[in-house]
Structure formats: C-alpha cells, structure tokens
From TrEMBL:
This is Cyn operon transcriptional activator. CDD domains: PBP2_CidR. GO terms for cellular component: cytosol. The gene is cynR_1. It comes from the Bacteria. Residues 1-58 form the HTH lysR-type domain. GO terms for molecular function: DNA binding; DNA-binding transcription factor activity. The lineage of its organism: Bacteria, Bacillati, Bacillota, Bacilli, Bacillales. PANTHER family: HTH-TYPE TRANSCRIPTIONAL REGULATOR YBHD, NITROGEN ASSIMILATION TRANSCRIPTIONAL ACTIVATOR-RELATED. InterPro entries: HTH-type_LysR_regulators, LysR_HTH_N, LysR_subst-bd, WH-like_DNA-bd_sf, WH_DNA-bd_sf. Keywords: DNA-binding, Transcription, Transcription regulation. Belongs to the LysR transcriptional regulatory family.
C-alpha cells in the first residue's frame, strides 16, 4: 500500500467520479483507475460500488476514505512542521553562558533573534564558562557563549566580541588618579574575583603571574554587581572588562586602563563538533557571523 495510491483513491472518492478527479488532480483517468485497483488488491477489498450508474463507496471504501484522509493530513502536517523547522519558525535552543555575558550582551542578541524567529524558545543556563563548556561537551545544552580560548578539538568556535580589561578601584584608592596602571603595580593589592567556576578566575591569576606575582584574593563571587559593590566598600580591587563599567552606576567606582600589553577579553559561541545542530540553532549562530 503506497501513499500515492491512497491519494488517488481519496481524490476519486471525494468527487465520486474518475473524470472529475482527473480534472482536479491533473492525473489521467487510466492512471487513477490503475492506482485504485492496486489499492483494492493490496487491501483485499472493493472500495467502490461500480454496479450502479453512479460511483459510490462500499462499506470498506468508507472506512479507507475516512482513515486515509486522516493519514494524509498527518503526513502533510509532518511536512509543514519540518518546513517550519527549516525556516527556524519553530524549535528550542538550550543555551549556556556566564551571568556577566548574559547581562552585557544577551538582551540585544535575544531581541534581534526574536524579531526574526518569534516562535523559537531559548532556555538559558547561567553558569560559569567552565561549567558551560562541560555541558556542551556532554550534550546537555546545545551551545554556549563563553570566554575564549577553548578546546578547538572538541568545539566549533565562532568568535563574536572582544573587549579590554581595566582596573576597578574605589575613587579614594591611591591608584585612582593615575591615567594608566601597570599590572605589576597591583602585587600588594587585595583582589576580588569571580569564583573558580568562571574562566575569568584563572585568566586573571595567570595574567598576574605573568606580571611577576601571585595575587592575594580576598573575596570570590559569581555576581559581577556584588564584586563592584565590594570594591565600592573599599574591600579590594579587580580587573574586569571595560563594558562592565558602562553598565554599573556606582559613583564611587573609578576605572583605570592598563598599560600595554592590554589584557583582552574574547568571547565566542561554541557547539560540540560532529553533532547535529537544529535549524533554529544554525540560524542563531549565523547571527554571530554577520
């Protein structure tokens, strides 16, 4: 039993005429007749009563007509749903990112994506970049917005933004009036950092070691706004991307650029290599390529 034969039968049954069905479907009468006979042979029943002047359905024909229409409707629905997916008009994306990246950049990204694909649902997982990488690798989420670099043998990587680290201090801090600060000048300071689940934690420590000292860490947090408030309370200093300063509003915070070479904050979107990416996810990633 083939769907093309069922389609032919339903066309004839809908019009109760081979002639009208042929005109409607643009399929010749002999082809329609052949398809109906083949369907009758496959099912082992007569579908039409051909003994009268006018064509009519048998009891078996009534059942096949009703169920056949439902089957074709479901088949058409599959085609429609797949077409929606291919056009990214439907679907779900599980996306991980550190809260800092979410605060600074995701609202604008989400707005642009929603304007184009309003029926796609995005579920967010706000976690440190290290945890996001693990979840992408394990297949628990579809993609992650993380701090680069990362493992290029495991992930597909699409860079999308770059920023400079700057020094955040209280306005009364002894370094606050300097135009620029060398990283080595911070060796006696107390640092307030993101906790160890965040890529920035190790990145700042590594940068300090390259400058010749091990930083003293007085506080760790998972929230950038808490870090800023601790600095405003004169409990330490930190290094954060410049774009955060534009988001925060505490008047007691002073931003000071670092001397060259600058510390770079590079971000990218990652997906796991050799895995299937949904159409909705592909369209999401394409936004970062523009």
């Amino acid at each position: 039993m083939e769907f093309k034969d069922i389609r032919a039968f339903i066309a004839v049954a809908s019009h109760l005429s081979f002639t009208k069905a042929a005109e409607y479907t643009y399929i010749s009468q002999p082809t329609l007749s052949k398809a109906v006979k083949k369907l009758e042979q496959d099912l082992g029943v007569l579908l039409f009563n051909r003994s009268t002047r006018h064509l009519s359905l048998t009891d078996a024909g009534e059942i096949v007509y009703k169920q056949g229409k439902q089957a074709l409707s479901s088949l058409n629905e599959i085609e429609n749903l797949l077409q929606e997916l291919m056009n990214a008009n439907a679907g779900n994306i599980k996306l991980g990112m550190p809260p800092l990246i979410g605060t600074l950049f995701f609202p604008d990204i989400a707005r642009k994506y929603h304007e184009r694909y309003p029926n796609v649902k995005i579920k967010l997982f706000e976690l440190g970049a290290k945890v996001v990488e693990e979840l992408v690798e394990e297949g628990q989420i579809d993609a992650g917005l993380i701090v680069l670099p990362t493992n290029e043998t495991i992930f597909n990587i699409q860079p999308f933004i770059e920023d400079n680290f700057v020094l955040f201090v209280h306005r009364d801090h002894h370094l606050a009036k300097q135009r620029k600060v060398a990283l080595s000048e911070l060796k006696n300071e107390k640092f307030i950092l993101f906790d160890q689940s965040f890529a920035l934690h190790n990145y700042i420590i590594s940068a300090c070691k390259d400058a010749g000292f091990n930083p003293t860490i007085s506080y760790e947090s998972s929230q950038w706004d808490l870090i800023v408030e601790l600095i405003a309370s004169k409990l330490g200093i930190t290094l954060l991307p410049k774009s955060i300063f534009e988001k925060q509003s505490n008047p007691n915070i002073k931003m000071i650029p670092l001397q060259t070479p600058a510390l770079k904050w590079k971000l990218g979107i990652i997906t796991k290599k050799d895995t299937y990416d949904s159409f909705a996810l592909k369209k999401f990633i394409e936004m970062f390529q523009q």
